[in-house]
Design brief:
Blueprint (H helix, E strand, L loop, with lengths): L1 H31 L4 H5 L13 H8 L3 H32 L5 H10 L9 H9 L21 H5 L6 H11 L4 H9 L4 H12 L1 H16 L3 H6 L8 H4 L11 H33 L4
Helix pairs in contact: 1-14, 3-14, 4-8, 4-11, 5-8, 8-14, 11-14
Keywords: Cell membrane, Membrane, Transmembrane, Transmembrane helix, Transport
Protein name: ABC transporter permease
InterPro entries: MetI-like, MetI-like_sf
Length: about 290
Protein backbone atom coordinates (compact mmCIF):
# COMPACT_ATOMS: atom_id res chain seq x y z
CA UNK A 1 0.00 0.00 0.00
CA UNK A 2 2.80 2.40 0.86
CA UNK A 3 4.50 1.79 -2.49
CA UNK A 4 1.25 2.45 -4.34
CA UNK A 5 0.70 5.62 -2.30
CA UNK A 6 4.26 6.81 -2.98
CA UNK A 7 3.84 6.18 -6.69
CA UNK A 8 0.60 8.15 -6.74
CA UNK A 9 2.23 11.04 -4.89
CA UNK A 10 5.20 11.07 -7.28
CA UNK A 11 2.83 10.91 -10.25
CA UNK A 12 0.71 13.78 -8.95
CA UNK A 13 3.77 15.91 -8.22
CA UNK A 14 5.13 15.18 -11.70
CA UNK A 15 1.82 16.09 -13.34
CA UNK A 16 1.60 19.29 -11.29
CA UNK A 17 5.17 20.25 -12.24
CA UNK A 18 4.57 19.63 -15.93
CA UNK A 19 1.30 21.59 -15.75
CA UNK A 20 3.07 24.57 -14.21
CA UNK A 21 5.80 24.47 -16.87
CA UNK A 22 3.20 24.32 -19.67
CA UNK A 23 0.91 26.98 -18.20
CA UNK A 24 3.63 29.44 -17.13
CA UNK A 25 4.23 31.02 -20.60
CA UNK A 26 0.49 31.59 -21.07
CA UNK A 27 0.12 33.12 -17.62
CA UNK A 28 3.12 35.38 -18.23
CA UNK A 29 1.69 36.44 -21.59
CA UNK A 30 -1.64 37.39 -20.04
CA UNK A 31 -0.08 39.25 -17.11
CA UNK A 32 2.38 41.07 -19.38
CA UNK A 33 -0.45 42.13 -21.70
CA UNK A 34 -1.58 44.52 -18.93
CA UNK A 35 1.86 46.08 -18.53
CA UNK A 36 3.00 49.32 -20.08
CA UNK A 37 5.91 49.39 -22.50
CA UNK A 38 8.10 50.87 -19.77
CA UNK A 39 7.30 47.96 -17.42
CA UNK A 40 8.06 45.38 -20.13
CA UNK A 41 11.41 46.99 -20.94
CA UNK A 42 12.31 47.60 -17.32
CA UNK A 43 15.55 45.89 -16.19
CA UNK A 44 13.75 44.90 -12.98
CA UNK A 45 11.42 42.00 -13.69
CA UNK A 46 8.04 41.94 -11.97
CA UNK A 47 5.45 39.23 -12.45
CA UNK A 48 2.41 41.42 -11.81
CA UNK A 49 1.78 44.73 -13.58
CA UNK A 50 1.59 47.90 -11.52
CA UNK A 51 -2.06 48.28 -12.47
CA UNK A 52 -4.47 46.12 -14.46
CA UNK A 53 -5.56 48.33 -17.32
CA UNK A 54 -7.19 47.34 -20.62
CA UNK A 55 -5.60 50.25 -22.47
CA UNK A 56 -3.27 47.91 -24.36
CA UNK A 57 -6.25 45.94 -25.65
CA UNK A 58 -8.19 49.00 -26.77
CA UNK A 59 -5.18 50.56 -28.48
CA UNK A 60 -4.14 47.29 -30.14
CA UNK A 61 -7.60 46.75 -31.63
CA UNK A 62 -7.64 50.32 -32.93
CA UNK A 63 -4.58 49.67 -35.07
CA UNK A 64 -5.67 47.89 -38.22
CA UNK A 65 -8.97 46.34 -39.23
CA UNK A 66 -9.14 43.61 -36.60
CA UNK A 67 -12.81 42.84 -37.24
CA UNK A 68 -11.78 41.86 -40.77
CA UNK A 69 -8.74 39.89 -39.58
CA UNK A 70 -10.78 37.86 -37.09
CA UNK A 71 -13.57 37.22 -39.60
CA UNK A 72 -10.97 36.01 -42.14
CA UNK A 73 -9.53 33.54 -39.65
CA UNK A 74 -12.97 32.33 -38.53
CA UNK A 75 -14.17 31.80 -42.12
CA UNK A 76 -10.99 30.01 -43.19
CA UNK A 77 -10.93 27.82 -40.08
CA UNK A 78 -14.63 26.91 -40.30
CA UNK A 79 -14.50 25.92 -43.98
CA UNK A 80 -11.18 24.12 -43.61
CA UNK A 81 -12.40 22.05 -40.67
CA UNK A 82 -15.76 21.22 -42.30
CA UNK A 83 -14.29 20.13 -45.64
CA UNK A 84 -11.37 18.43 -43.91
CA UNK A 85 -13.60 16.26 -41.73
CA UNK A 86 -15.69 15.33 -44.77
CA UNK A 87 -12.78 14.30 -46.99
CA UNK A 88 -10.74 12.59 -44.27
CA UNK A 89 -13.69 10.58 -42.95
CA UNK A 90 -14.53 9.38 -46.46
CA UNK A 91 -10.91 8.40 -47.10
CA UNK A 92 -10.58 6.72 -43.70
CA UNK A 93 -13.79 4.77 -44.29
CA UNK A 94 -12.60 3.61 -47.72
CA UNK A 95 -9.24 2.42 -46.35
CA UNK A 96 -10.85 0.65 -43.39
CA UNK A 97 -14.05 -0.90 -44.77
CA UNK A 98 -13.74 -1.20 -48.56
CA UNK A 99 -11.79 -3.91 -50.32
CA UNK A 100 -10.20 -2.73 -53.55
CA UNK A 101 -7.00 -3.43 -55.41
CA UNK A 102 -4.01 -1.45 -54.15
CA UNK A 103 -5.78 -0.25 -51.00
CA UNK A 104 -2.90 -0.92 -48.62
CA UNK A 105 -0.37 0.53 -51.05
CA UNK A 106 -2.38 3.72 -51.41
CA UNK A 107 -2.67 3.98 -47.63
CA UNK A 108 1.09 3.53 -47.33
CA UNK A 109 1.69 6.35 -49.81
CA UNK A 110 -0.75 8.60 -47.95
CA UNK A 111 1.23 8.06 -44.75
CA UNK A 112 4.38 9.25 -46.52
CA UNK A 113 2.81 12.69 -46.36
CA UNK A 114 3.40 12.65 -42.61
CA UNK A 115 7.15 12.53 -43.24
CA UNK A 116 7.29 15.50 -45.63
CA UNK A 117 7.70 18.94 -44.01
CA UNK A 118 5.36 21.68 -45.17
CA UNK A 119 8.27 23.82 -46.33
CA UNK A 120 9.40 21.19 -48.84
CA UNK A 121 6.19 21.37 -50.87
CA UNK A 122 5.55 25.09 -50.35
CA UNK A 123 6.73 26.20 -53.79
CA UNK A 124 4.98 23.45 -55.82
CA UNK A 125 1.69 24.04 -53.99
CA UNK A 126 2.03 27.80 -54.50
CA UNK A 127 2.51 27.30 -58.24
CA UNK A 128 -0.51 25.00 -58.44
CA UNK A 129 -2.67 27.55 -56.63
CA UNK A 130 -1.41 30.39 -58.84
CA UNK A 131 -1.87 28.41 -62.06
CA UNK A 132 -5.30 26.99 -61.23
CA UNK A 133 -7.25 26.87 -64.54
CA UNK A 134 -10.11 29.28 -65.27
CA UNK A 135 -9.73 31.12 -61.97
CA UNK A 136 -8.41 34.61 -61.26
CA UNK A 137 -7.97 35.48 -64.92
CA UNK A 138 -6.21 32.23 -65.85
CA UNK A 139 -6.97 30.44 -69.09
CA UNK A 140 -7.57 26.71 -69.46
CA UNK A 141 -3.84 26.04 -69.09
CA UNK A 142 -3.44 28.20 -65.99
CA UNK A 143 -1.74 31.17 -67.61
CA UNK A 144 -2.46 34.88 -67.64
CA UNK A 145 -3.82 35.46 -64.15
CA UNK A 146 -3.25 34.99 -60.44
CA UNK A 147 -5.40 31.91 -59.82
CA UNK A 148 -6.44 31.59 -56.19
CA UNK A 149 -3.86 34.07 -54.85
CA UNK A 150 -5.32 36.58 -52.39
CA UNK A 151 -8.51 34.55 -51.98
CA UNK A 152 -10.16 32.41 -49.33
CA UNK A 153 -9.93 29.29 -51.47
CA UNK A 154 -6.22 29.80 -51.94
CA UNK A 155 -5.84 29.79 -48.16
CA UNK A 156 -8.22 26.86 -47.63
CA UNK A 157 -7.59 24.25 -50.34
CA UNK A 158 -4.04 23.16 -49.35
CA UNK A 159 -5.10 22.75 -45.70
CA UNK A 160 -8.25 20.65 -46.19
CA UNK A 161 -6.92 17.09 -45.98
CA UNK A 162 -4.09 15.66 -43.91
CA UNK A 163 -2.68 12.11 -43.71
CA UNK A 164 -2.94 12.06 -39.93
CA UNK A 165 -6.69 12.61 -40.10
CA UNK A 166 -7.09 9.80 -42.62
CA UNK A 167 -5.00 7.54 -40.38
CA UNK A 168 -7.04 8.41 -37.30
CA UNK A 169 -10.37 7.71 -39.01
CA UNK A 170 -9.08 4.45 -40.48
CA UNK A 171 -7.87 3.24 -37.10
CA UNK A 172 -11.21 4.01 -35.49
CA UNK A 173 -13.32 2.46 -38.26
CA UNK A 174 -11.25 -0.74 -38.11
CA UNK A 175 -12.65 -1.44 -34.65
CA UNK A 176 -16.18 -2.02 -35.97
CA UNK A 177 -17.07 -5.68 -36.65
CA UNK A 178 -17.55 -6.76 -40.28
CA UNK A 179 -20.98 -8.06 -39.36
CA UNK A 180 -22.11 -4.46 -39.01
CA UNK A 181 -21.51 -3.81 -42.72
CA UNK A 182 -23.21 -7.04 -43.69
CA UNK A 183 -26.27 -6.23 -41.58
CA UNK A 184 -26.48 -2.75 -43.12
CA UNK A 185 -26.21 -4.23 -46.60
CA UNK A 186 -29.04 -6.69 -45.87
CA UNK A 187 -31.20 -3.77 -44.70
CA UNK A 188 -30.62 -2.08 -48.06
CA UNK A 189 -28.12 0.59 -46.94
CA UNK A 190 -25.64 1.86 -49.48
CA UNK A 191 -22.03 2.43 -48.48
CA UNK A 192 -22.60 6.15 -48.07
CA UNK A 193 -25.74 5.65 -46.01
CA UNK A 194 -23.95 3.11 -43.83
CA UNK A 195 -21.23 5.69 -43.17
CA UNK A 196 -23.69 8.47 -42.37
CA UNK A 197 -26.18 6.47 -40.32
CA UNK A 198 -23.89 4.06 -38.44
CA UNK A 199 -20.25 5.07 -38.47
CA UNK A 200 -20.51 8.85 -38.13
CA UNK A 201 -22.79 8.86 -35.02
CA UNK A 202 -20.48 6.31 -33.36
CA UNK A 203 -17.34 8.29 -34.26
CA UNK A 204 -18.03 11.62 -32.56
CA UNK A 205 -14.85 11.42 -30.41
CA UNK A 206 -12.69 11.16 -33.54
CA UNK A 207 -14.59 13.96 -35.27
CA UNK A 208 -14.16 16.15 -32.18
CA UNK A 209 -10.46 15.29 -31.94
CA UNK A 210 -9.74 16.16 -35.55
CA UNK A 211 -11.98 19.24 -35.41
CA UNK A 212 -9.86 20.50 -32.52
CA UNK A 213 -6.53 19.69 -34.19
CA UNK A 214 -7.60 21.15 -37.55
CA UNK A 215 -8.98 24.26 -35.89
CA UNK A 216 -5.76 24.90 -33.99
CA UNK A 217 -3.64 24.23 -37.07
CA UNK A 218 -5.71 26.46 -39.34
CA UNK A 219 -6.14 29.26 -36.80
CA UNK A 220 -2.41 29.39 -36.04
CA UNK A 221 -1.27 28.99 -39.65
CA UNK A 222 1.32 31.64 -40.51
CA UNK A 223 3.62 30.49 -43.31
CA UNK A 224 1.02 29.65 -45.95
CA UNK A 225 -1.10 32.85 -45.54
CA UNK A 226 2.13 34.85 -45.66
CA UNK A 227 3.05 33.24 -48.99
CA UNK A 228 -0.35 33.14 -50.67
CA UNK A 229 -1.69 36.61 -49.85
CA UNK A 230 -0.34 40.14 -49.64
CA UNK A 231 -3.59 42.14 -49.44
CA UNK A 232 -4.57 43.72 -46.14
CA UNK A 233 -8.20 42.59 -46.46
CA UNK A 234 -7.02 38.95 -46.66
CA UNK A 235 -4.84 39.03 -43.55
CA UNK A 236 -5.44 36.45 -40.86
CA UNK A 237 -4.97 37.25 -37.18
CA UNK A 238 -1.48 35.74 -37.14
CA UNK A 239 -0.30 37.94 -40.01
CA UNK A 240 -2.00 40.97 -38.49
CA UNK A 241 0.41 40.90 -35.53
CA UNK A 242 3.05 42.30 -37.87
CA UNK A 243 1.36 45.72 -37.80
CA UNK A 244 2.85 46.24 -34.33
CA UNK A 245 6.36 45.82 -35.65
CA UNK A 246 8.07 48.64 -37.48
CA UNK A 247 11.58 49.24 -38.72
CA UNK A 248 12.45 51.13 -35.56
CA UNK A 249 10.47 49.53 -32.74
CA UNK A 250 8.31 46.64 -31.64
CA UNK A 251 5.20 47.44 -29.62
CA UNK A 252 5.41 44.46 -27.29
CA UNK A 253 2.56 45.59 -25.06
CA UNK A 254 0.16 45.65 -28.02
CA UNK A 255 1.50 42.36 -29.41
CA UNK A 256 0.93 40.61 -26.08
CA UNK A 257 -2.59 42.03 -25.78
CA UNK A 258 -3.51 41.02 -29.33
CA UNK A 259 -1.93 37.58 -28.90
CA UNK A 260 -4.01 36.99 -25.77
CA UNK A 261 -7.20 37.78 -27.68
CA UNK A 262 -6.10 35.57 -30.58
CA UNK A 263 -5.43 32.63 -28.26
CA UNK A 264 -8.83 32.82 -26.52
CA UNK A 265 -10.97 31.11 -29.23
CA UNK A 266 -8.56 28.16 -29.48
CA UNK A 267 -8.34 27.87 -25.68
CA UNK A 268 -12.13 27.88 -25.30
CA UNK A 269 -12.49 25.28 -28.06
CA UNK A 270 -9.95 23.03 -26.36
CA UNK A 271 -11.75 23.31 -23.01
CA UNK A 272 -15.01 22.33 -24.69
CA UNK A 273 -13.58 19.36 -26.61
CA UNK A 274 -10.80 18.09 -24.36
CA UNK A 275 -12.86 15.12 -23.12
CA UNK A 276 -13.55 13.97 -26.68
CA UNK A 277 -9.95 14.71 -27.68
CA UNK A 278 -8.53 12.29 -25.12
CA UNK A 279 -11.17 9.68 -25.88
CA UNK A 280 -10.60 9.93 -29.63
CA UNK A 281 -6.82 9.58 -29.38
CA UNK A 282 -7.09 6.57 -27.05
CA UNK A 283 -9.75 4.65 -28.95
CA UNK A 284 -8.20 5.31 -32.37
CA UNK A 285 -4.90 3.77 -31.40
CA UNK A 286 -6.22 0.42 -30.18
CA UNK A 287 -5.91 -1.50 -33.46
CA UNK A 288 -3.32 -1.30 -36.23
Amino acid sequence: MKRVLHRKIILLVGIALISVIVALPFVMMILSSFKTMAEIQSPVFRILPESFSFDNYWEAMRQGNWARYFSNSFIITAITVSLGLLTMSLAGYAFARLNFKGRDLLFFFSLIGLMIPEQVILVPVFLKIKEFPLVGGNDLWGNGGIGFLNSYWGLIIPQIAHPFGVFLFRQFFLQFPKALDEAAKIDGCSRLRTLLKIYVPASLPVFATLALLKSIGSWNQYTWPLVISNADNMRTVQLALSIFKTEYAVQWNYILAATTLIALPVLLLFLLLQKYYVQGIVTSGVKG
